[in-house]
Structure formats: structure tokens, C-alpha cells
Amino acid sequence: MNSRLAAIDIGTNSIRCIIVEVTETGEFRVLDDEKATVRLGEGLAAGGAILPAAWERARQALLRMRKIIDGLGVESLTAVATSAVRQAANGGEFLAAMLQETGIEIRLISGEEEAQLAALSARHNFELDNTRTLLVDIGGGSVEIVTLVGDHVDEIASLPLGAVVLTERYLAGDPVSEGSLKTLRNQVRKTLRKELGRPDLPVQYLIGSGGTMTSIAGMVMALRKEQFDSVHHYEVLRSEVVHLLAMLARKDQKGRRAVPGLNPERADIIVAGVLVVDELMRQFRVNLLRINEKGIREGLILKALAERGLRSDQSNRRDWRQVVEDFARSCHFDEGHSRHVNRLAQQILAGLAPRFVFEERAAQLLEAAALLHDIGYFISYAQHHKHSYHLIRHADLLGFSPREREVIANIARYHRKSLPKKKHDGFARLCAEDRLLVRRLGGVLRLADGLDRRRALLVDEVRCACEGKSIRMVLAGAGDLSVELYGGQAKGDLFSEAFGCRLELTTV
What integer is the mean pLDDT of 455-482? Predict the structure, then answer.
């Protein structure tokens, strides 16, 4: 029987509560994710204690979360407090009062345990190869930094560089002055050098969690004029972080509150947070930031599951292909047909080399689209290609960024019926480079789908040869392939258009 767990993360800037339903196998789905911006660390740097107003905001938020938890029938609750309560002289009194008034027993955790929980979430949500990765969780009071080699933790550090603390200490002006910004940058740089030193090995990319990170993703998404449902796995370049910081620093708080993609409640502390990200990327010479929208509260859930024996470290190492296949099965896909179409599509893609060069990732996007192209049948046969698009676009596909998920959804959408058009909203949202990728990979998928017209898995092999302006494909397989040949000819239109060629299909 399924059970329900809850986790509360009491930070310096906000309190987050996540409630999940867990199956007997340890898989879980989120039922509720509540956030309250309470600024528990307000005035802490100056006074050394939690202020009465912040105390009351936190109390009200926890009372509300307690009611939500009870209403959803949660069986087990884990609550932790982090930097602000660690630093506050009256932190112990706060924890005792919250237990008495809300019935929530809150455990005070160290910066190192914060980092471990953030790492647990990152390992659950990202495929980590054997390269070196930097994990950064920015809170209001501290920054937790974890260096990973593969999915193994190498080093952990907790630094007093939270967005609320730095803002109160260094950025009192509105807008911030160039002098105060320079002073803050020097302090952050000095702290990073002292605590972390110069990295002796290159870092592949940075995985970021916390409100500052999700805000960066939201603002960059708006600047790019992209529209994705989530920033989870969203990718941001260092140059975009640099430009974002310059733009934010020029504005006063009123101007920052109006910045698209930024929660107005974070407008006063965002400059300090983005500056820390900028300095971390500079020091570690990393150019790519990938967003983990989940963070510490999910780490708490994963830890609770492990303690119950429902999930091991090995089960946290999730493979993108397994996630795609599990999602496809949940939509009752035709597994034989989908796998066969993927095999043919991969043969076609490989056969186009060396005239057409694709990155390795393209084959993975094509595979995901091939396995999922028909899941729209789960909704309805009519317009099922469009249903496939929407199902994929809103799915939680581990290992794929929002941009890649949008590409996969579009590839699947064009396996039948209309060809891509700029008047199609989903296609129009893509950048020019991704529109070309969708046309080409969509053309390959559409053709491969046609080559299994009877869903009889008869075509064993597709041999490709690029000859001038023509691409010749020879179909090999047992039995009569006339229907498959017809299907390929009927659905080769997008392929011919996307590759600018004449498609010739024959059988052995």
C-alpha cells in the first residue's frame, strides 16, 4: 500500500514543504510543494538573533504547513533547520517553541549535512559520468558546495555566502553602488580562495539548486523568450550570468521587481546571489550551469526512503533511457513497434554520415522521441501525434533539459500528418537551430515509422547511400516489403525537405 511522506526545509530566506506519495518499490510522486518566504535571517547579521517579526512569519508558515500535512494524511514527517537557526543566539528557543506550538519536531543540521542532502537530490536527478562536477546550493545564509567525481562525493564545503547575509552586510544602497558591489565581489573572491583554493582539476559543469539558481534560470528563459513549464535541468551559460548580473546591478529594487522571470520577493537579494554564482563559475572555470529545481527538501525524502529500506544509493542512479521507457509504459505504448522504429531510425541517422554530422546527443533525442512517438494513443487515436507532444512536453524526463524535452516533443509530434510550420506554437517557440534539428530528426522518425506501416517488424535493415542530391535507401528483410516500401515513400516528405534531397527507396 502506498504511503505519504513530508519534508520541511527551514532556510534563512524561505521555508519549503514537500509531500510525496511513495509506492512499495520506493518510487514517489509529489502531491504538494508549499513555499513561504519568511526571511528568518532578517537582521541576523546585525543583531545575532531571530527577530520577533521573522519568528512570527515562520510560526504562521509552519502552522499552515502542519494543516496541509495533516489534511493529506502524511504518515512520516522530517523537518530540518539550516543556516539562520544555526547562527542565531535564540535558535534553540525557536526550535523548542515551534515544537510546542506546531507539533513539528525540527532537527538542526550542519552545513555539511545540507550539502550531502543537496548532493543526494542532484545524484537522483542528473546522470553523472566520470567527469568532475561542481554542485552548488545557495541559500539565504550559506552556500553549500560539493565536488563530485562521477556520482561520488570528493569534497564538501559550507561557506557564509548566502544571499540574505551578503545583501545585509554589503549591499545596503538602492540601487547598489559600484563601490559596494566591488567590495562584495572582493570579499566573495577572497572567501572562495581561502576555503576552496585553486581547483587543480577541470570541472565539467555546475549543478545549481536553491532560489537564486531557479531565479537565474527564470530570468534567462525570459530573456531568450523561451516558454518551458519548468526550469528543472535548464542550462545557462556563464556569459548569460555575467550579463544578467550587470543588468540587475543597474536597477533599483522597483526595477528588479519588474524583471521578467524573477519573483518580486527575491528582488532585494538577487544581486548578491547572482554575484556568488558568477564568482564560482569564474574560479572553477566552468561555462555551463544546469538547474536542479528540487534541492534539499527532495534530499530529505530520498534519505527517509533509504532509511526505510525503500531506496538504495544504486536506485538513485537513474538512467535517462529507463526513465523514458518507464514513462512510455505508463502510457501503454506499443513496445515492439516503438523499439523497432527506433532501431530503423538509428540506422538511418548513422547512414547519413559523413555528409550530415550530428552530435552524439542527437541520437539520444531521436531515441526518446521514437520510443514515445505514439504515446498519444493513451489519450485518443484522433490527433494522437498532438497528444504525444503535450504528454512529452509536460513529462518529468530525467536527464533531459527543458529545451531538449521540447525538442523531443516536437520530433514526436511530426511523425504523422502536418509538416512543421512556424504557425504551430510549439515549433515556433524553438530557436532556429532547434527548428532545423526537429525537421531533420523528425524527418528520420517519420520515415522510420512509415517503414513499419503494418507494425509487423519486417524491415531488418536500412542501408543508406548519399549520391549527389539523392539519398538512396535499400530495405532488407524477410517476406514481402511492398507495404513497408509504400509507407516509407508516403512518409518521406519531411525527410526530403529537411535534408534538401531526393529520397529513393528500394528493396533488396
Answer: 94
